[in-house]
Specification:
heterodimer; A: mainly beta; four-stranded antiparallel sheet; globular; B: alpha/beta; Peroxisomal Thiolase, Chain A, domain 1; nine-stranded mixed sheet; two-stranded antiparallel ribbon; 12 helices; 33% helix
Amino acid sequence: MTDTTDLNSLPFSAPLDMVDGMPRLVAGRCRDCGEYSFPIASSCPACGTVVEEVHLPTRGVLWTWTTQEFEPASPPYAPVAGTPFEPYAIGYVEFPNYLRVEGRLTEQDPDILRIGMDMELVAVPRGETLTYAFSPVLTGAG
Amino acid sequence: MNDEIAIIGAGIHPFGRHDAVTGLSMGVRALRGALADAELEWTDMQFAFGGSEDAGNADTMVTDLGLTGIPFINVKNGCATGGSSLTSAVLALQSGQYEIGAVVGFDKHPRGAFVNFPVDWSLPEWYGELGLMMTPQFFGAKIQRYMYDHSIPSSTLAQVAEKAFYNGSLTPHAWRRDTLGREQILNAKMIANPLTQYMLCSPGEGAAALIVCRRDYLPKVTKSRAVWLRSVAFRTRLAGSFEVFSPSLSLDISPSPTVAAAKAAFEIAGVAPQDVDVVQVQDTESGAEIIHLAECGFCEHGEQVEMYANGDTRIEGRLPVNTDGGCLSNGEPVGASGLRQVVEIVTQLRGEAGQRQVPSSPRVGFTHVYGAPGVSACTVLSV
């Protein structure tokens, strides 16, 4: 992996889409009750009816978080070849009016992570694939 | 079902690590213990329910116990395996088809964290590959939010573990028998922020068994120390419940299945949380004990800070919780834990808990299990 790799050339390993060059998560929305699902459910988890595909917003707030301090068992975990394990943080990001999505966070410092902080979706290369993560939006950075 | 179903025998195989002993033979030991406690024989049993998550088929115990031809039904329901077996036994007795039967739970897990695979949980492979399929993450994330919502400090988490290890030091069959100080617990290796090493239970080994009967069978028992099983209630999650291995959550979080199971258990038994003298709640980690006490109705959300600071949940406190050290001291053999809780309450209500005996002659007890993927079973017991 080099910095010059075109992210768009990597296959997605999560329900991710590129829209106008920006990463978007692909979720489901129930045509009947409006309940959202991620990843998209085959039928609505709330009422059992048909679900359609939607893109989630890219900005949300951190609803909760924790850390993974030891390397998970593989499988099912897929370590990245040639990269030693580093502890990471995971969290749920709330997208108001939609739902909360779980994912890895790009920041793992407990002194920086705060419930309620602004987060944005980022696409991150992982091995030979592209996946998603949530990244704190730095104050004043727009 | 008040005073209709009695527990007349309780047996336990020590929890911990027993390298040379299979899970099934621990189950047999526990079941023989329960039979001896009831002064009955295996040939007296009319049915059995039992199970484990990782340690084999319960019904093969008949090879050791005796091939009597009775229906022996295997139960496999994650952390609720014991609760499910007990629920099934109660239904069998209530149906009128049987008068007496046995319930057994046992397990023996490999060392280290539980390993789960997406395919077994209707989840996509990428969820596991990315490193999101880890139970400690759920516990950490859930208590992190709960502490934020209800202003609970990390010191309360440490107080839960400190109490558990103290109670475990008084319990002969517990795994962890050494006390630990609050600072030692707080400063231990972080596992899933804010939970440190000593705030999470470990997968382990052990077995527990009960003999249950109808009221009309009691005259046939020579020496009865019956404890009434006044209710057992089992529930699964509703849409929107915050459960383990959830790639997403609804904005409208619905109450945990614990809330419905506890409410039903109290209603069927005709008692209120304030009538309970001794409690067992699932303490997979320190945070779970805190959350479950409120979800079961024993306190308001946030009130736990004061309760633990005051020592209310200690053996001599006003609401003794997990008097045998709970999962934190006993470890988590999934198939056995739910029945271990019931065995402990039976022992406490009989006044036979030795050094860890609740001093005020407890008359009403309560148990609660909770587990993946969103199941809970609660019981109310009394003498």
